[in-house]
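INFO  loader      accepted 1 record
INFO  loader      residues=251
INFO  predictor   begin
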Amino acid sequence: MSTAPAVAPAQSAQRLLGQTVVVIGGSAGIGLATAGAARAEGAEVILTGRNPERLDDAVRAVGALSSAAFDATDPDRLGRFFAELPAPVDHVMVSGSGPYYAPLAEFDFAEARRDADQHLWLPLHLAREARGRVRPGGTLLFIGGTGGRSRGVGLALIGAMSAALEALAANLAVELAPVRVNVIAPGFVDTALSARLLGHELAARREELRATVPIGRVVGPEDVAALAVHLMANTAVTGATFDIDGGQQLV
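INFO  predictor   done
INFO  writer      dumping tokens
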């Protein structure tokens, strides 16, 4: 009795070959990881960020096509960035700063307005600029979070911003069609931003998550990047919010 020879699986095609991905906030963390994942799938990437030196390092690390250093919450500068793109792009992802937490007794309204600029007004301004500059079937991807679904002291603003972003994406998916609009909602992600926010509590938080979440490990930026690339490549998905927290909400 003979058996058929084993056949090595064909190398999968690069899912973003020939496409261009813009990552707003692409110099570190989730944004940088997504840029690297998109490059690995054949895309050209364009990065933006506030810090010119860190942005230059990111460009070299992923082999970006080009970059621009500016504050994306400045709508005039954001508009110039899109107007200066030499050709339409296929996907735009917005990453950036973490949310603002504070109880009402300590609430800093100036800081809260900056948070709203980042997590509400920036997506709206970007959606308007995307008209005619993102190819049909392409994607706008916004980074939200699962933390805003909790209830408690200090969570009023993040709860409002989280709900607003999900509703915004669902409505923009209709208004901007056939451009697709989706939200990625991470829980804790092990990035330099998380390290800055948690400080000396970081190690304990990692251990707590490893011991409690169903996947038995901490979610990293490369996990979120893999989901982002999937949503860019899967042209059937729009108007949706995708959680990625390792099952943290379940426990």
